[in-house]
From TrEMBL:
Entries under Pfam families matching the protein: Cytochrom_C
Record domain Cytochrome c: where: 43-127, 171-280
Upper classification of the organism: Bacteria, Pseudomonadati, Pseudomonadota, Gammaproteobacteria, Lysobacterales
Origin superkingdom: Bacteria
InterPro entries: Cyt_c-like_dom (IPR009056), Cyt_c-like_dom_sf (IPR036909), Cytochrome_c550/c551-like (IPR051811)
Keywords assigned: Electron transport, Heme, Iron, Metal-binding, Transport
GO MF annotations in UniProt: electron transfer activity; heme binding; metal ion binding
Organism in which the protein naturally occurs: Luteimonas yindakuii
Name of the protein in its database record: Cytochrome c
Length: 280
């Protein structure tokens, strides 16, 4: 190829790339309203966005992977945590930490109840945007399910996903563990399997023993009569019994999502119960 041919090739290739870029950009703009559920944007959601900017939340957090990486990405936080948890957390983050043990990095912003409610609505809207899987993995901080030092590596991705295929004839406990790590909202976003590691919810280590003690306590307010029934109740009706004094509920409502009866089959719930019941 001589110089003239090389020049022509470069010009044509650049022209084709420019046309493709413009075409894809125009196509994206025709789909933005659909992908972002723009029709669902209310004045409250818009105000929640203004609250997000007013308190400079993006200085620590990210949305869709954009922002600071000092604290977790909040793109799907409304699905992972739920409204009750988010409202209680925003009112007083210090209640969710042992400052001597974990260091409380989230400041108390003294948001008004209206600001909190609308910020939660904004985050709920964000969580429903079709972001086509971006960011590609949870962005966690110390104390989460993934070691921060491993993020960005194959080890970190494997830990974050931790999805191991199970065969149809697997032990129900093995299938239950698989569900625990993959069901949406993902259980590992709030619960650790390690003793003494408390995230948004209690550790699942020793679940069976704690369930037995709870059932024997006069403070138990649910309807279960055995350990398996208690674990099932905690999954399908999490507000049936609230642990006294624990920051896992607010205003009589558990932070545990109450949507699993709709998103899981009875068989899948049985498998989760089998796995959690094996946590001695």
């Amino acid at each position: 190829m001589n110089k003239r041919q090389s020049r022509i090739f470069a010009i044509v290739a650049t022209g084709i790339a420019a046309v493709a870029f413009l075409g894809l950009t125009l196509h994206s703009h025709t789909r933005f309203d659909e992908l972002t559920n723009a029709a669902d944007i209310t004045p409250e959601i818009t105000h929640g966005k203004d609250v997000w900017h007013k308190y400079n939340c993006i200085n620590c957090h990210t949305l869709f992977g954009e922002g600071a990486y000092y604290a977790p990405d909040l793109t799907k936080i409304a699905q992972h945590r739920g409204e009750a948890y988010l409202k209680a957390y925003m009112r007083d983050p210090s209640q969710f930490y042992d400052e001597q043990r974990h260091r409380r990095l989230m400041p108390t912003q003294n948001l008004s109840e209206v600001e909190i409610a609308n910020l939660v609505k904004f985050l709920d809207w964000v969580s429903k945007v079709d972001n086509q899987g971006w960011p590609p993995r949870p962005i966690l901080v110390a104390g989460g399910a993934v070691n921060v030092a491993a993020q960005g590596t194959e080890q970190g991705v494997a830990q974050a996903q931790d999805v191991r295929p199970v065969s149809a004839d697997s032990d129900p406990r093995a299938i239950g563990e698989h569900l625990f790590r993959t069901v949406v909202p993902v259980c590992t976003a709030c619960h650790s399997l390690q003793p003494g590691v408390q995230l948004a919810g209690p550790s699942m280590a020793g679940m069976a023993e704690r369930a037995a003690l709870t059932l024997a306590s006069p403070d138990y307010t649910g309807n279960a009569t055995d350990v398996e029934g208690y674990i099932r109740e905690a999954i399908v009706a999490p507000s049936a019994h609230l642990v006294p004094g624990a920051m896992f509920s607010a205003d009589g409502v558990s932070f545990m999502p109450n949507t699993y009866p709709e998103s899981l089959t009875d068989e899948q719930i049985d498998q989760l119960v089998a796995f959690l019941g094996s946590m001695k």
